[in-house]
Amino acid sequence: MGGADQGINPLTGQSVGAPVPHTDSAGVAAATTAARAAAPAWAALTPPRRADILDAVAAAIEAARADLVPLADAETALGEARLTGELTRTRVQWEMFAAALREGSHLDVVIDPADPDALPAPRPDLRRMMVPLGPVAVYAASNFPFAFSVPGGDTVSALAAGCPVVVKAHPAHPGVSARVAEVIAGALRDAGAPDGVFSVVYGFEAGRVLVTDPAITAAAFTGSIAGGRALFDLAAGRPDPIPFYGELGSLNPTVVTAAAIAARGDELVRGFVGSMTLGAGQFCTKPGLLFLPAGHGLDERLAAAVGAATVGPLLDERIAAGYLRATDGLAEVPGVRPVAVGDAVDAAGWHVPVRLYAVSAADVTANADAALHECFGPAGLIVEYADDADLLAALGAVPGALTATVHAEPDDALVPTLLDFMAARAGRVIWGGWPTGVAVTWAMQHGGPWPATTSPLHTSVGVTAIRRFLRPVVYQGVPDALLPPALRDANPWSLPRRVNGEMTA
Amino acid sequence: MGGADQGINPLTGQSVGAPVPHTDSAGVAAATTAARAAAPAWAALTPPRRADILDAVAAAIEAARADLVPLADAETALGEARLTGELTRTRVQWEMFAAALREGSHLDVVIDPADPDALPAPRPDLRRMMVPLGPVAVYAASNFPFAFSVPGGDTVSALAAGCPVVVKAHPAHPGVSARVAEVIAGALRDAGAPDGVFSVVYGFEAGRVLVTDPAITAAAFTGSIAGGRALFDLAAGRPDPIPFYGELGSLNPTVVTAAAIAARGDELVRGFVGSMTLGAGQFCTKPGLLFLPAGHGLDERLAAAVGAATVGPLLDERIAAGYLRATDGLAEVPGVRPVAVGDAVDAAGWHVPVRLYAVSAADVTANADAALHECFGPAGLIVEYADDADLLAALGAVPGALTATVHAEPDDALVPTLLDFMAARAGRVIWGGWPTGVAVTWAMQHGGPWPATTSPLHTSVGVTAIRRFLRPVVYQGVPDALLPPALRDANPWSLPRRVNGEMTA
Q1: Where in this protein does the record put region Disordered (chains A, B) (predicted)?
Q2: Is A116 on the interface with B (CB under 8 A)?
Q3: Is B103 on the interface with A (CB under 8 A)?
């Protein structure tokens, strides 16, 4: 171990703030030991009490806004407007989980009273509820220094579930990570949360040690396929394998029909280039593949829109180098032609050119492995299809995705097939919109089949993200007074419950 | 590959029925290809239509009872009474999932209408539901030739979810596996299910090939820790890892307090020995660890109850050999003394002696790895505790379990602590009963932390077992007429739905 994370301003390549030392194995063990010690007390809080504490953290994050946004901007260059919005979203996530705890359906209470006449055998009294797994490791992402980092959705959903959290900070923004960690820890302490319920560790090696620590019962990760796969393999290879919720990579295929182009070609060009270059293309939901009918005639308009786009630098040197390597590789796939490919950028920091290519659907189908991988950054691949069969063959080669988008007219004959195709390959199917921007709601699903995630049953955004950290326990024949309050006959917490198979309010 | 599974009568060691040839890789590929081809049509059936088909299978299994029970008895020697009950339970499971499909809550529909005022940003219309994962591999268990085998809970819950199933049959009962496979396949065909939606493969190597087949999207397994871990590792090591739901091994700790012994010692002795020897101790929920206060004075009564127990042979030669090896190992753990240990059995077939040992809690804590592993068969270990601290230390060393049982008086001071301790380590907490016998209901949880299962969030028994094979998809901004019926405004399937955060009937 040893070493430190040093914040770098992506605009200039210059250091920002003091280095944050890497956590050694003793430091990781101290964090996980404290998390394990805190687990019973944190789990034992009533949901409304835990909700109050989450609200206190939300308020503390809000109160530190004037500190946090400039710190994050200096280390990420994502811009004040974007980071201001992201901080609001992050605060809202804490408030949303607090509200969900007060509603209580996350406990998923099910009561089957004893039934001497049940088939195949008389049934004892059975009462089931959800309980927290235990300490959770959270791996912060680079591209959302708030919403998918130290104070992000993985952290709050695990805390909401009743699990202590140890975050492994992302090395691209150590300064804001350390600052927001102080804010969260202080708010938790002031609100009466047990010591050790939240901590942050730093450094690559600390992250490897963390996922194999015996005290850790689950892990959540947002990042690259390579990084996520390495941690997933460590989690699965433990003597006691643990759930690993990784959100890895996604091409987010977007299909545009000829009728949609005829109806609103200019708008589609603007929307696509805007979504592809938003945040310098560093969204996990960036539309990386745009399926257009062959002969679409949009090349010039696409090139103009790319030329007009303002694109900031990438987040760090490693990501910038990876972007150039990945797009260079894409340019060499048979049949790929440039549509709008900028020259190497001669500025300081981690600026890169937008790179938009095109290729035929037949060539994608023939070279799927080379053509169909994510280029993290402001790059896209247009796939030109000759007919419906050609389109569906290429779409069928696209790996699992977080999102899949259709731009069509409702009476396009292919639409029902397309929507089914998309639903079979992605966690979110979008009609007439763009995938960047993920609403934080009950219904949201931010996940999908491999490699979009390691666990297609779950989401990392929205209320149901809490389900990743809860497991069912059923009590059989336990006297009412000895049951957890959630399961008692009197329903003292006024929870929604399923009794004898029927939902009750 | 090559070779065949040969049924053997455990009472005699003699062959029963014709050998069933192992499936070669081409046969496995044919099954998975057919399953993949069947997946869209099976997924597209309305839930009530799929329910009708499950009911038809239930009726066909019932109609074949007179065939199936004797076949299973010849290959397992579990006895006609037990197998008759197990067949009823198995039929009831098909009917239960059919009823659950008609109710529709498995689709978990959530609708967030568009909201221009939502924080942190205006919200599009979002509608989420569950969709099937795709073809599922099911690994049959030895110990329940119906309920956890070809027609068992894994098969029916995956089919109910809308997933085609390829079962890998257990080699200990190939004849009844092949016969019930014909019954199921015939009923599915007659009821109009798509070809390929269900098939069975045979042989160890076929099982290995199956879990790595690209068409397979999830696997469910019931069996040993070693076998389950090997398949789990293959599933996790795929280029595209898939969910692996393994139910592996469980010690099912049972704690008895001094007050409970004082109140009903004889009843406890009878109950424990009955549960430990039920089905020759070959239940995954067998109480393998009995915690008694030191000086309990029950040795003679325990030995008498063991002597009076009628215990059939084990299921096959490998299990019988493993039982003798495991119990021999247990006898050598420091401090272990015999309580009721029969001599080697000199009968034909796979008869083994009951073996009940005792050891101090302190010795268990000191030798946890050697003392705390499952002995599949009619064996148990009594753990004698000096005081509460001694008890909790030894309990804390017990690995994750399917069940944990408390026999106490409600006013025992330790009871609340004990129940919390049990809930932290098991999926089912039982008061005053015995863990063998698993009710098939909404509330049942048959699962637990590693090594009880590979996936503590899930159950393999009860209605919610269906959740293992469903993943969420959210539709964003899709016009009503293009949505799946479950998500349309008019709610044509009358589903329970969460709208704007509130449950609706």
Answers
A1: 1-24
A2: no
A3: yes
Best to test chain B binding among A108, A405, A438, A457 (most B CBs inside 10 Å): A457
Hunting for tokens 């879990």 — which residue is that? B211
How many domains are there within chain A?
A: 2
Across the interface, which of B120, B237, B475 has its CB nearest the CB of A440? Answer: B120
The answer to whether the CB of A298 falls within 8 A of the CB of A270 is no
CATH of the domain at A229: 3.40.605.10
Asked if B480 is an interface residue toward chain A (Cβ–Cβ < 8 A), one would say: no
ipTM over 0.90: yes
Residue B410 forms contact with A (CB below 8 Å): yes
Q: Shortest Cα distance from A217 to chain B (angstroms)?
A: 9
Do B222 and B269 fall within a single domain?
no
Backbone angles phi, psi at B119, to 5 degrees: -100, 145
Residue A117 at interface with chain B, using a CB cutoff of 8 Å:
no
Do A143 and A162 lie in one domain? The reply is: yes
CB of B467 less than 8 A from some CB of A? yes
Residues B47 and B110 in one domain: yes
pLDDT at B220 over 80: yes
- Chain B residues with CB under 8 Å of A121 CB are 85, 89, 437, 439
Confidence at residue A2, expressed as pLDDT on a 0 to 100 scale: 73
Question: Which residues on chain A are in Cβ contact (under 8 Å) with B471?
Answer: 427, 447, 449, 456-457
pLDDT digits (tens, 9 = 90+) for A130-144: 999 999 999 999 999
pLDDT of A121 reads 82
- pLDDT(A287) > 90: yes
Q: How confident is the model at residue B345 (pLDDT cuts 50, 70, 90)?
A: confident
CB contact under 8 A, B482 and A410: yes
Q: Give, as one character, the DSSP assignment of residue B455.
A: -
**Yes or no, beta carbons of B501 and A442 under 8 Å apart:** yes
Nearest to B473 among A427, A503, A505 (CB): A427
Cα–Cα separations (whole angstroms), residue B98 to B49, B53, B59: 9, 8, 12
Whether the per-residue pLDDT at A1 is higher than 50: the answer is no
Q: What is the pLDDT of residue B62?
A: 98
Which residues of A are marked as active site? 247, 284
Q: If DSSP codes are grouped into helix, strand and coil, which group holds residue A19?
A: strand
Pair type for strands B289-293 and B379-385: parallel
> What digits encode the pLDDT tens for the residues B239-281?
999 999 999 999 999 999 999 999 999 999 999 999 999 999 9
Q: Could you tell me the two tokens for B211?
A: 């879990």
In the structure, what pLDDT confidence band is assigned to residue B477 with cuts at 50, 70 and 90? very high
- Tokens (6 digits) for B430: 């039982």
Domain end position, chosen among B431, B446, B480: B431
d(CA B292, CA B411): 18
Q: What pLDDT does B9 receive?
A: 97
Mean pLDDT lowest for which of A119-128, A151-160, A324-333? A119-128
- Whether pTM > 0.95 for this model: the answer is yes
Single out the residue of A248, A500, A194, A215 nearest to residue A374, CA to CA: A248
Residue B342's domain spans which residues?
253-431
Chain B residues within 8 A of A243 when measuring between CB atoms: 455-457
